[in-house]
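INTERNAL AUDIT FORM
Audit reference: QA-55
Scope: verify that the stored structure record matches its stored sequence.
Auditor: D.O.
Record contents follow.
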Amino acid sequence: MAETVFSRPGALAPVITHYCPGCTHGIIHRLIAEVIDELGIRERTVGISPVGCAVLAYNYFTVDFQEASHGRAPAVATGIKRARPDLIVFTYQGDGDLASIGMAEIVHCANRGEKVTVVFVNNAIYGMTGGQMAPTTLPGQIATTCPLGRDVEQAGHPIRIAELLSTLRTPSFVARAAVHTPLHAVNAKEMLRRAFRYQVAGTCFSLVEVLSTCPTNWGVPPVEANRWLAQNMMPFYPLGVFKTPDGADRAPTPGAGD
């Protein structure tokens, strides 16, 4: 009899996603679902989905979900976790959501040390609304609102969320991963597992930033999008663990993890 070695996680709904071809949101969904199943926490997990490409995440997981206003997922997560500390609460947010209108929410959530898990998907652009420049858009990167490329003299430099949150004194787990290759996906899953484990143990706030592709709004084929991420995003957004609750922080160097 053949042995099943690969199957759909129970925490992942058996539906076709709406994401564009080559988008890596689906990979990140699967990794989260695998971690939830492996930790045995599906029946007490609650996800928070705000506005943007992440808005329909509730269709793809078999756990309870709550909608949040644009950028306010950390506030909703805080309320749920404080009311029901026994629940495992995670937010799933894009860069246009978390790093723009939601910047104050995520900074104060982390600074308070709310014991929730944040999955932050960074594709360096506004995806759902048409490819506008995001807080994470790279210098010189073309977007619909900066057709000549991001001018840092006018728009400022891209915001490195993982580095920013790692400067807070509150104990936390902060890391950055990518999913554009199988090896990077394996490493990303390990970081997500660590983040959820810290919440299961009641240890600390955790955030895993995941570099993701957006072939549609980058204007390149999916395979080229993977190369673009490695060549352009990873040098500016180095991979690795930036902060751990025990103080053993390790700040990656530019280009690390490629």
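Auditor finding: record pair retrieved intact. The domain at 25-243 is CATH 3.40.50.970 (Rossmann fold).
Action required: none
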